[in-house]
Amino acid sequence: MSYLGIGVSPGNVPVHHGSNVKVINKGVRIAELILRCLICGLAVVAAILIGTDSQVKVIFTIKKEAKFTDMKVLVFLVIANGIAAAYSDSSSKVHFEYD
Protein backbone atom coordinates (compact mmCIF):
# COMPACT_ATOMS: atom_id res chain seq x y z
CA MET A 1 0.00 0.00 0.00
CA SER A 2 1.28 3.43 -0.81
CA TYR A 3 0.97 6.41 1.49
CA LEU A 4 1.42 9.64 -0.46
CA GLY A 5 3.71 7.95 -2.90
CA ILE A 6 5.89 6.38 -0.20
CA GLY A 7 5.90 2.58 -0.09
CA VAL A 8 5.05 2.35 3.60
CA SER A 9 1.88 0.96 5.19
CA PRO A 10 -0.27 3.37 7.26
CA GLY A 11 0.74 1.62 10.49
CA ASN A 12 4.43 2.33 9.87
CA VAL A 13 4.38 5.93 8.71
CA PRO A 14 7.80 7.52 9.19
CA VAL A 15 7.92 10.49 11.52
CA HIS A 16 10.29 13.35 10.82
CA HIS A 17 11.38 15.58 13.66
CA GLY A 18 13.04 18.94 13.60
CA SER A 19 16.64 19.48 14.60
CA ASN A 20 15.95 20.62 18.20
CA VAL A 21 14.36 17.39 19.45
CA LYS A 22 17.27 16.61 21.78
CA VAL A 23 17.00 20.03 23.42
CA ILE A 24 13.27 19.55 24.04
CA ASN A 25 13.83 15.98 25.21
CA LYS A 26 16.49 17.16 27.71
CA GLY A 27 14.15 19.85 29.04
CA VAL A 28 11.33 17.36 29.49
CA ARG A 29 13.65 14.93 31.28
CA ILE A 30 14.84 17.65 33.66
CA ALA A 31 11.26 18.75 34.38
CA GLU A 32 10.25 15.13 34.97
CA LEU A 33 13.15 14.61 37.37
CA ILE A 34 12.24 17.76 39.30
CA LEU A 35 8.59 16.67 39.56
CA ARG A 36 9.53 13.15 40.67
CA CYS A 37 11.83 14.54 43.37
CA LEU A 38 9.10 16.96 44.48
CA ILE A 39 6.55 14.14 44.73
CA CYS A 40 8.99 12.01 46.70
CA GLY A 41 9.84 14.84 49.08
CA LEU A 42 6.23 15.83 49.69
CA ALA A 43 5.20 12.23 50.34
CA VAL A 44 8.00 11.84 52.90
CA VAL A 45 7.08 15.14 54.58
CA ALA A 46 3.40 14.16 54.75
CA ALA A 47 4.23 10.77 56.26
CA ILE A 48 6.53 12.37 58.86
CA LEU A 49 4.03 15.09 59.80
CA ILE A 50 1.14 12.68 60.20
CA GLY A 51 3.27 10.08 62.00
CA THR A 52 4.71 12.48 64.57
CA ASP A 53 1.58 14.54 65.22
CA SER A 54 -0.39 14.17 68.43
CA GLN A 55 -3.11 16.14 70.14
CA VAL A 56 -4.06 16.35 73.82
CA LYS A 57 -7.65 16.97 74.82
CA VAL A 58 -8.58 17.64 78.45
CA ILE A 59 -12.07 16.52 79.46
CA PHE A 60 -12.70 17.67 83.01
CA THR A 61 -9.53 16.33 84.66
CA ILE A 62 -8.81 13.47 82.26
CA LYS A 63 -6.17 13.98 79.59
CA LYS A 64 -6.55 12.01 76.38
CA GLU A 65 -3.71 12.01 73.88
CA ALA A 66 -4.70 11.26 70.30
CA LYS A 67 -2.17 9.87 67.84
CA PHE A 68 -2.39 8.80 64.24
CA THR A 69 -2.54 5.16 65.31
CA ASP A 70 -5.98 5.75 66.87
CA MET A 71 -7.53 5.95 63.39
CA LYS A 72 -6.92 3.16 60.88
CA VAL A 73 -7.37 5.60 57.99
CA LEU A 74 -4.40 7.67 59.14
CA VAL A 75 -2.27 4.54 59.54
CA PHE A 76 -3.16 3.63 55.96
CA LEU A 77 -2.34 7.20 54.85
CA VAL A 78 1.13 7.06 56.42
CA ILE A 79 1.83 3.68 54.82
CA ALA A 80 0.49 4.83 51.44
CA ASN A 81 2.63 7.98 51.54
CA GLY A 82 5.70 5.90 52.38
CA ILE A 83 4.99 3.53 49.49
CA ALA A 84 4.40 6.47 47.12
CA ALA A 85 7.68 8.06 48.14
CA ALA A 86 9.60 4.81 47.72
CA TYR A 87 8.03 4.14 44.32
CA SER A 88 8.71 7.67 43.11
CA ASP A 89 12.31 7.46 44.25
CA SER A 90 12.95 4.04 42.72
CA SER A 91 11.17 4.80 39.44
CA SER A 92 13.11 8.02 38.97
CA LYS A 93 16.41 6.19 39.53
CA VAL A 94 15.46 3.38 37.13
CA HIS A 95 14.07 5.77 34.51
CA PHE A 96 17.13 8.01 34.41
CA GLU A 97 19.61 5.19 34.80
CA TYR A 98 18.66 3.49 31.54
CA ASP A 99 18.23 6.59 29.35
Automatic annotation (TrEMBL):
<comment type="subunit">
    <text>Homodimer and heterodimers.</text>
</comment>
<keyword id="KW-0812">Transmembrane</keyword>
<feature type="domain" description="Casparian strip membrane protein">
    <location>
        <begin position="26"/>
        <end position="88"/>
    </location>
</feature>
<protein>
    <recommendedName>
        <fullName>CASP-like protein</fullName>
    </recommendedName>
</protein>
<comment type="similarity">
    <text>Belongs to the Casparian strip membrane proteins (CASP) family.</text>
</comment>
<dbReference type="GO" id="GO:0005886">
    <property type="term" value="C:plasma membrane"/>
</dbReference>
<feature type="transmembrane region" description="Helical">
    <location>
        <begin position="33"/>
        <end position="52"/>
    </location>
</feature>
<dbReference type="InterPro" id="IPR006459">
    <property type="entry name" value="CASP/CASPL"/>
</dbReference>
<dbReference type="Pfam" id="PF04535">
    <property type="entry name" value="CASP_dom"/>
</dbReference>
<feature type="transmembrane region" description="Helical">
    <location>
        <begin position="73"/>
        <end position="90"/>
    </location>
</feature>
<keyword id="KW-1133">Transmembrane helix</keyword>
<keyword id="KW-0472">Membrane</keyword>
<dbReference type="InterPro" id="IPR006702">
    <property type="entry name" value="CASP_dom"/>
</dbReference>
<keyword id="KW-1003">Cell membrane</keyword>
